[in-house]
Design goal:
The chain is α/β, with parallel strands linked by helices. Helix content is about 30%, strand content about 20%. The protein has seven helices and ten strands. It has a seven-stranded parallel beta sheet, covered by helices on one side. Strands 4-8-7 form a three-stranded antiparallel beta sheet, covered by helices on one side. α1 packs across α2. The longest helix has 18 residues. Bound molecules: fructose -6-phosphate. The site of fructose -6-phosphate has 13 residues, from loops.
Length: about 240
Amino acid sequence: MEIIIMENAAEIGEAAGKLFVKAIQKKPDIVLGLATGASPVPTYQYISAACQKGEVSLRDVRTYNLDEYVGLPRNDKNSYYTFMHEQLFNHTDIQEQNVHFLDGNATDVEAECRSYDDQLDKAHIDIQLLGIGRNGHIGFNEPSICFTKGAFKVKLTESTIDANSKYFDENPMPHYALTMGIGSIMKAKKIVMIATGSAKADAMAAMIKGEVTPVCPASILQFHPNVVVYLDKAAAKLL
Ligand code: F6R
């Protein structure tokens, strides 16, 4: 695991953004696994700006997002579908047919999850971008008694609801989501994680220095051969 400690979120956004831009320039039809939340926003801003300046094209890039809330209309302002379009896709030349999400409104959840797993198996993610929950979750794989393999419907923990409910001003935050499984995340050829702020310090210490346990789902990344972790000083304070 390569650990890179930087001054702040803006510096991380630039460094991680450059990593993605270079990777896309090298392989224009790269397959990316993408995360939502606050952590990747500066990275998405960097990639968007590079695309606007004509330095990189996302025309042939394919993306698979980690998770989606259950029960929100696709175009709801709080859906992760909307988030990705507002933060990245709308500022690039990516083709809509190349962006993939779990359908949080699927009537047959099991079929939806198996179909996403099949797509991921065929796509072979080149780089998976991750944030981390305060409780060590990746995607929405919450602390548990076992590591998950494929996509599934998860009941979000109090910690996650507490962290994300600030984004829901009108309607209550959904308590369920569909998420990519740990097994699929681990199949990515490279993983880039971003963690900023002191609220992530415990999770970073558990992920990097703790035992590998589903109680801290991110700790499984110790077993992945190609992980880069960008964190700021506040998130790194317990390392
Ligand atoms: C969202 C996701 C989550 C977030 C995590 C951190 O797609 O995968 O694991 O990365 O909850 O969220 P922020 O970055 O908002 O602290």
